[in-house]
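Milestone 3.1: sequence recovery, worked example.
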């Protein structure tokens, strides 16, 4: 029961950090002017990454920011962003493969379970969102 509550609270925090649900609906509207289309596309991509993270089991072990709610099983997403270079395509590909196949050793001894059911394109969107958190 406590995992379910933690998941719900994590989802609520992620939703609050992202803003209200109307932003996604507006960003999905393809009838924007040419001058606002790139900004809308970036917002949609970011929103989609956060949405995919919230819909997965990722928030069971990871938090958005290190300081939220104390310790977690895995690293916070801002810690991941700080460790990896978002500019390298090989970094994104390596992290996508790591999430799908699972593993251990990079962040400690607790293994990350495989997420083979996730689509590679969705995981790429999630990784791109996470790496964009780099300060």
């Amino acid at each position: 029961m406590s995992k379910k509550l933690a998941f719900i609270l994590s989802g609520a925090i992620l939703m609050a950090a992202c803003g209200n649900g109307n932003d996604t609906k507006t960003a999905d509207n393809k009838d924007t002017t040419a001058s606002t289309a790139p900004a809308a596309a970036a917002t949609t991509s970011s929103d989609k990454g956060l949405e995919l993270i919230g819909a997965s089991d990722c928030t069971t072990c990871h938090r958005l920011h290190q300081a939220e709610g104390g310790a977690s099983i895995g690293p916070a997403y801002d810690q991941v962003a700080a460790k990896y270079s978002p500019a390298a395509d090989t970094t994104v590909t390596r992290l996508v493969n790591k999430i799908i196949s699972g593993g251990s050793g990079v962040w400690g001894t607790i293994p990350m379970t495989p997420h083979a059911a996730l689509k590679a394109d969705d995981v790429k969107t999630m990784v791109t969102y996470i790496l964009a958190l780099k300060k």
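The radius of gyration is 15 Å. The longest helix spans residues 37-55.
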